[in-house]
Amino acid sequence: MTVELRVSVDGGGQLEDLREWMGGLPGVAVRAVPRSPERNSQGTVWDFLSLVCATGGPLVAGVRALQMWIEARVTVVKVEVGDRRFTLTGTNARALLPQVVEAARALEAGATAPRDPGSGPAEPERRTPAAGASDEPA
């Protein structure tokens, strides 16, 4: 089984740097996904990176590599795992990335948290993020 993480970064140059950084990790496939071209534009701009990770070690290694990349920069990175969105910065990545792994594992296991009837689609279990972290529902 595999899990897809969608990683967005402000600025195409940073996305290229991240693609190069993540390339070559065993069990992690990295693919740049272009956004629809705007009218009268030349070339395409990447919308996000798709990181498809094998479960277990490759998933953890991929998230750890992402953490190291974020901590080395002053940037904001957005990660989507299923229906959950995480906003990561160099100051909160260490605290929040374990929740990314947890959400990915819950997604692969098909686990959902108990919910009130009529509250909409089931969501993975949520934990309160560390101070300054953002864990936004999709």
Query: What structural class results from the helix and strand content?
Result: alpha+beta
* End-to-end gap: 23 Å
CATH C-level name: Alpha Beta
Assign a percent range to the helix content: 25-40%
Give your account of this protein's structure:
InterPro entries: EACC1. Residues 107-138 are annotated as: Disordered. With 138 residues, the chain is α+β, with helices and mostly antiparallel strands. The chain has one domain (2-37, 44-137): Alpha-Beta Plaits. The chain is built from three helices and six strands; from the N terminus they run E-H-E-E-H-E-E-H-E. Strands 2-3-1-4-5-6 form a six-stranded antiparallel beta sheet, covered by helices on one side.
Care to give the gist of this entry?
The chain is α+β, with helices and mostly antiparallel strands. 31% of the residues lie in helices and 29% in strands. The model is unreliable at 113-133 (pLDDT under 50).
Key words describing this protein structure:
31% helix; 3 helices; 138 residues; six-stranded antiparallel sheet
Spell out the blueprint of helices and strands.
Blueprint: E1 2-9, H1 12-22, E2 28-34, E3 46-54, H2 57-71, E4 76-81, E5 84-89, H3 93-109, E6 134-137
Antiparallel strand pairs: 1-3, 1-4, 2-3, 4-5, 5-6
Helix pairs in contact: 2-3
InterPro entries: EACC1
Pfam family, one: EACC1
Region (Disordered): 107-138
